[in-house]
Amino acid sequence: MERITISQLQNWKKTKKKFAAITAYDFSFSRLFSNQGIPVILVGDSLGMTIQGHTSTLPVKIKDIEYHTKAVRKGAPNTFLLSDLPFMSYYDTRETLKNTGKIIRSGANMIKIEGGKWLVEIVKELSNRSILVCGHIGLTPQSFNYLSGYKIQGRDKNDANKLIDEAYLLEESGIKMLVVECIPEKLAEKITANLSIPVIGIGSGKNTDGQILVMHDLLGITQGKIPSFAKNFLSESGSIQKAIKKYIDEVEKGIYPGKKYSF
Ligand code: KIV
């Protein structure tokens, strides 16, 4: 696979080519995903649940993300790799710069941080130092206590407008990509149309530039209830390789997520 860069992803946004992304946490899966043609991999702090068995992402430490980023990068040398900064690892600029250095040195192309307005200064500081930053708004799992659980966000007009404002503000501050999680399809469509950076959706309908899924959801091996927006691609594919190919194909053709998997 050719090396995927941020300008490639920006071109896809311009030419309206949809792309698939997936989480990975180790060498074997990242190699398999990259061999099937996945252009973007996220070392998500979802590893707190999928790998470490916690009930939330909050216990994840920066050293965990470093460890998994190094392993994933070895399996996917040409994939565009983003890694999460975990809970409380970006509470101020100094801490953020220190931790970002660790993650970029581990092999990530971009770091992802959750939140809105309060991140403006931090995003500016990172961008001024040529660090690629991905924002993450909507359902932000690191704030699940504050949000009273894992719920759809942006349903009423005020909340929707707040998310639109945050998306603009973050783009203006310097983010180069945005993840929108669990927001209504129409709102995700509006944010995607109004930003010039690629917008990746999860549980946010099919009208974003890209889609992302947690690998365990896509393969139907998540402990407990699989989120209603996640499709088990393995059950109808027969092998992990075919499931990934089908996921890529359905995202690129705008088949997944259809109505059944959207809000
Ligand atoms: O940690 C993660 O896996 C994520 C995705 C759900 C986007 O942030």
UniProtKB/TrEMBL annotation:
<comment type="pathway">
    <text>Cofactor biosynthesis; (R)-pantothenate biosynthesis; (R)-pantoate from 3-methyl-2-oxobutanoate: step 1/2.</text>
</comment>
<keyword id="KW-0489">Methyltransferase</keyword>
<dbReference type="GO" id="GO:0005737">
    <property type="term" value="C:cytoplasm"/>
</dbReference>
<dbReference type="InterPro" id="IPR015813">
    <property type="entry name" value="Pyrv/PenolPyrv_kinase-like_dom"/>
</dbReference>
<keyword id="KW-0460">Magnesium</keyword>
<feature type="binding site">
    <location>
        <position position="84"/>
    </location>
    <ligand>
        <name>3-methyl-2-oxobutanoate</name>
    </ligand>
</feature>
<comment type="function">
    <text>Catalyzes the reversible reaction in which hydroxymethyl group from 5,10-methylenetetrahydrofolate is transferred onto alpha-ketoisovalerate to form ketopantoate.</text>
</comment>
<dbReference type="InterPro" id="IPR003700">
    <property type="entry name" value="Pantoate_hydroxy_MeTrfase"/>
</dbReference>
<keyword id="KW-0566">Pantothenate biosynthesis</keyword>
<feature type="binding site">
    <location>
        <begin position="45"/>
        <end position="46"/>
    </location>
    <ligand>
        <name>3-methyl-2-oxobutanoate</name>
    </ligand>
</feature>
<feature type="binding site">
    <location>
        <position position="114"/>
    </location>
    <ligand>
        <name>Mg(2+)</name>
    </ligand>
</feature>
<feature type="binding site">
    <location>
        <position position="84"/>
    </location>
    <ligand>
        <name>Mg(2+)</name>
    </ligand>
</feature>
<dbReference type="GO" id="GO:0008168">
    <property type="term" value="F:methyltransferase activity"/>
</dbReference>
<dbReference type="InterPro" id="IPR040442">
    <property type="entry name" value="Pyrv_kinase-like_dom_sf"/>
</dbReference>
<feature type="binding site">
    <location>
        <position position="112"/>
    </location>
    <ligand>
        <name>3-methyl-2-oxobutanoate</name>
    </ligand>
</feature>
<keyword id="KW-0963">Cytoplasm</keyword>
<feature type="binding site">
    <location>
        <position position="45"/>
    </location>
    <ligand>
        <name>Mg(2+)</name>
    </ligand>
</feature>
<dbReference type="GO" id="GO:0000287">
    <property type="term" value="F:magnesium ion binding"/>
</dbReference>
<dbReference type="GO" id="GO:0015940">
    <property type="term" value="P:pantothenate biosynthetic process"/>
</dbReference>
<keyword id="KW-0808">Transferase</keyword>
<dbReference type="GO" id="GO:0003864">
    <property type="term" value="F:3-methyl-2-oxobutanoate hydroxymethyltransferase activity"/>
</dbReference>
<feature type="active site" description="Proton acceptor">
    <location>
        <position position="181"/>
    </location>
</feature>
<comment type="similarity">
    <text>Belongs to the PanB family.</text>
</comment>
<keyword id="KW-0479">Metal-binding</keyword>
<comment type="subunit">
    <text>Homodecamer; pentamer of dimers.</text>
</comment>
<dbReference type="Pfam" id="PF02548">
    <property type="entry name" value="Pantoate_transf"/>
</dbReference>
<protein>
    <recommendedName>
        <fullName>3-methyl-2-oxobutanoate hydroxymethyltransferase</fullName>
        <ecNumber>2.1.2.11</ecNumber>
    </recommendedName>
</protein>
<dbReference type="GO" id="GO:0032259">
    <property type="term" value="P:methylation"/>
</dbReference>
